[in-house]
């Protein structure tokens, strides 16, 4: 009902409806969901929506617990002065990197190993597959040592020419150690369609040497070929 001046007069029923709307939106329901609830005299719609909302909140609650667990680890590392830029990765990736670092601690440092660490952190942050990348990577001490030896061989090519005879053999050795699951995951990300022309080449100078870049190109070609035949 409206008064002569155009203002609407709200009655008790309107106040009750507004109170219901406020309570339902505070629970997390959207206005569309609230409309469905208020239009259903039997309350069945409300029950279904509340169950769905509860499931959604349970998922969010679990994610918050997991994030707080990761934050606790990072905070402890920061308090010890051991926190590094790429430590804020998933728990699976953190465990993988920790195992790998422990296995190669007594070996010479490798610049290419650090580059790989940065790449793994990037792939970990952008991945969204059914299985985390870290869960598909080899984690035995022997695997870690073998991988680090390959990094050291890549370091040796820092100033080498593109046609260095060590390039092809090193690329083949790297591909040999890539698990089939990782190849499948890379294929899902478009490995076979990766541009091997100027765009890829332009991204490499300044970060790796010519021979190192050629090794990486050959690795990608070999992985794409291996994926195509699997």
TrEMBL record:
Molecular-function annotations in GO: DNA binding
Signal peptide location in the record?
none
What organism is the protein native to?
Answer: Saccharopolyspora erythraea (strain ATCC 11635 / DSM 40517 / JCM 4748 / NBRC 13426 / NCIMB 8594 / NRRL 2338)
Q: What is this protein called?
A: MerR-family transcriptional regulator
GO annotation terms (biological process): regulation of DNA-templated transcription
HTH merR-type domain location: 1-40
Gene3D superfamilies recorded for this chain? 1.10.1660.10
What single Pfam family name could you report for this chain, choosing any that match?
A: MerR_1
